[in-house]
Amino acid sequence: MASDPNAPRSRRALLTAAAGGAAAVAASAAMPLTTMAAPVNMQTEQDNPTIAQTSVTQATAGQVSFKARTVNPDAAGVVGSTGDETASSEDTSWTGIYGWAPVNPDADVFSAGVWGDSDDVGTYGSGTVGVMGDGDVGVVGRADLGGYGVHALNFNSTGIALRVDGKVSLSRSKKTTIGSGKSSLKVTMAGVTSQSLVFAVLSSNRSGRYVRAVVPTTGSFTIYLNAALTSASFVSYIVVN
């Protein structure tokens, strides 16, 4: 027979039911969240460990999905890191976003504190200085076959596209030797074509001797002098393209 919810209960029955309910609540609180599979609110002023991704979706056009700001500019607004932070910067002042990543143990793969990826522009910087790099190598540009490692562009056709303060190191330039009695030197170099621009000059003072022509072809170029040398001499060359 079904019990009547309106039937009177004894004091002992009520106390027993209350005790049982309290025990159930306590047991539920003691269960790990992974077992409960229940999301929790993020708490301020403490770490929020998680085993699942946390995301913010903004459905209103023109509105920011997530914003983090420090009132004083003595620390970054957002710090993102991966792995060991031992060597990360202790000073992130005057920084909107600071990203850190340790060195990748695979020498053929770069690690990245900040990675921008797009079918158009991966990372865009604007300002008096759009993008600045500081380190043993300030900026590295890498491209696939047929692309550009670094493209310097000035929309003013009379403006400067590339400015270099300091020395320039070019892997396709060299100082070498033409032996005594020789009037030419063939240099083998991958990537050279008949359309390459190759410039060469004698780097030894040889009276009456000079570079008469430089002729490029597929995979090499030949430096021709106006006459054979009477002693070994240095010649310097640079391949532009």
Could you give the topology of this structure?
Elements lengths: L10 H20 L2 H4 L41 E4 L15 E4 L72 E6 L5 E5 L9 E5 L8 E7 L2 E6 L7 E7 L2
Parallel strand pairs: 1-2
Antiparallel strand pairs: 3-8, 4-7, 5-8, 6-7
What does this protein look like?
The protein has 241 residues and is mainly beta. Among the domains are: 69-114, no CATH class; 173-239, no CATH class. The chain has helices at residues 11-30, 33-36, and strands at 78-81, 97-100, 173-178, 184-188, 198-202, 211-217, 220-225, 233-239. A hairpin with a 2-residue loop joins strand 6 (211-217) and strand 7 (220-225).
Structural class: mainly beta
How far apart are the termini? Answer: 97 Å
Helical residue percent band: under 10%
Count of separate DSSP helical elements: 2
- Give the tally of β-strands: 8
Mean pLDDT equals 86
Largest sheet: 3 strands, antiparallel
The share of residues in extended strands comes to 15-25%
Gross morphology is elongated
Poorly predicted spans: 22-27
Rg result: 35 Å
**How would you describe the oligomerization state of the chains in this entry?**
single chain
Strand order of the largest sheet: 3-8-5
What is the N-to-C order of secondary-structure elements (H for helix, E for strand)? HHEEEEEEEE
